[in-house]
Amino acid sequence: MPVTDKFSNIAHLAVSESAATTLTFEKLGLGTGIFEKMAMIIHRIEYEPSAASFALLDVVGHEMAFAWTTSDQISGLAKDSAQVIDRVAWTIQTWGTMANAEIINKPLIHDFSNLPSGGLIVPATDLYLAAIGTSLGSATYCRSTIYFTYRSLKGDEFWELVEATRALT
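Given the sequence above, the corresponding structure tokens read:
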């Protein structure tokens, strides 16, 4: 299986909910078609929600979640969904008064380079960065960076991958 890329590609994308507590997607067009039988090996994903989004987490039960998906036709960002490649969520817990604070390191990094294939493998079709807040007063916003390489697949390998990730929904 020949690797087409020798060096990592980098893509930056940002998503902002269209309204508070509304699942919203932003498309990352990769410029490859399904007949090219290409896969992406995702080596690393960085998430960086805005400071204003973190400020919305002011009551227990508030949450903001961001994910990379293979489809924008899903109704939620459940980690066990085949279309969800990677997900991250922040919520708040309080102990005592709200006078306590914690410094949040940004960006949050998910490194997949130690996986057997060198990363997560997904079809090189369009990907989506998704955002949703739960019980928040206004919309959330997140910037994300994804590091990946392309790999050619045989026809049966590619279609098995498409089926596994439900990329064509």
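The helical segments are 51-55, 155-165. Try to locate this feature in the token string yourself.
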